[in-house]
Write a structure and sequence with these properties.
There is one protein chain. It contains 9 helices and 15 strands. It has 295 residues and is of the alpha+beta class. The strands form 3 sheets. Strands 5, 6, 7, 8, 9, 12, 13, 14 and 15 form a 9-stranded antiparallel beta sheet that branches. A 4-stranded parallel beta sheet has the order 2-1-3-4, sandwiched between helices. Helix 2 runs parallel beside helix 3 and helix 7 crosses helix 8.
């Protein structure tokens, strides 16, 4: 008897090329002993609804889409007491989770093979003010680039669309006063950027030191960039980060199970590359080993 498998497909992800290789991938899954049921998303948030409604009926689930689709799926699964193991075939633009888990990108056949041959990896997720995020919650410099970049440009230009938008946003960079409470203490000063994450890759371009990140250790990485002396110092700092050098006195990388951010005025946040609303008092907590991802 074949193993039931739920596949959630975002037909809009990755320039809409989800059909390339799908029939062959489904045959590979069938030959490997899976009976695959297809579910197509029709609007933002639909993957969350599908995962929450049907996820408990399947021992395994595959998400075929971008990081945003995977985030929606995991948000839906977090409402369940019994959660399926999750496979991910990335066909998005940034594909941060794919880079972190070393999954083949934009190759459905290779992704299916990886799923068949892979093993489950415990993965921490995050909760915030009643919601969930998959791998990163961020505010400040460049955090809005992903959700502010038009979808048609993402499909047409891919990663270049993000880089162009980031370059244009430099002139709007600012610092803001934040009180940050975390496991190891308190900051009460001005920051240009802050994030809580469980990933090596952020935004498809920035890679955190691998020795700092453990995906199932019950800790998230708290990454902070302090107020810089001037806008002119942004470019050398960015070059330093892109070369994987985090030795700047303006950068803090810490580890925490909980964090609370208190702003002087409402601050926009991005969750897994999507706009998550403005928050003045924002608390996050690690959900240790909440999901198992096949990789």
């Amino acid at each position: 008897m074949k193993t039931p498998l739920m596949m959630i497909i975002n037909p809009a992800a990755g320039k809409g090329h989800f059909k390339n290789g799908l029939p062959e991938a489904l045959k590979l899954l069938s030959d490997a002993g899976y009976d695959t049921a297809l579910f197509f998303t029709e609007y933002r948030g639909h993957a969350t609804e599908l995962a929450a409604e049907h996820g408990a009926d399947y021992p395994r689930l595959i998400c075929l889409g971008g990081d945003g689709t995977l985030a929606e799926v995991i948000t839906g699964l977090m409402t369940l007491d019994k959660r399926p193991q999750v496979g991910y075939i990335p066909i998005g633009t940034a594909n941060d989770i794919a880079r972190t888990l070393k999954l083949p990108k934009n190759d459905i056949i290779a992704g299916a093979k990886k799923f068949i041959e892979g093993e489950p990896l415990p993965f921490d997720t995050g909760s915030y003010n009643g919601g969930y995020f998959n791998y990163v919650a961020a505010f400040g410099a460049f955090s809005a680039v992903s959700y502010a970049t038009p979808q048609d440009k993402k499909r047409k230009f891919g990663q270049a669309a993000y880089l162009t938008a980031a370059a244009k946003s430099v002139k709007d960079l600012k610092s803001r006063h934040v009180r940050i409470e975390y496991d190891g203490g308190v900051f009460d000063e001005d920051f240009m950027y802050g994030s809580v994450s469980n990933t090596y890759s952020i935004g498809g371009t920035v890679d955190l030191p691998k020795e700092e990140v453990e995906l199932g250790d019950g800790l998230h990485e708290l990454v902070l960039i302090k107020k810089l002396p001037s806008i002119a110092t942004v470019f050398p700092l960015a070059a330093q980060v892109l070369s994987h050098d985090y030795s700047s006195p303006y950068i803090e990388i810490l580890h925490t199970r909980k964090a609370r951010f208190i702003f002087d005025e409402p601050e926009p946040w991005a969750f897994d590359g999507e706009y998550g609303g403005d928050h003045i008092d924002f608390a996050v907590e690690v959900m240790e080993r909440a999901i198992e991802i096949i990789c």
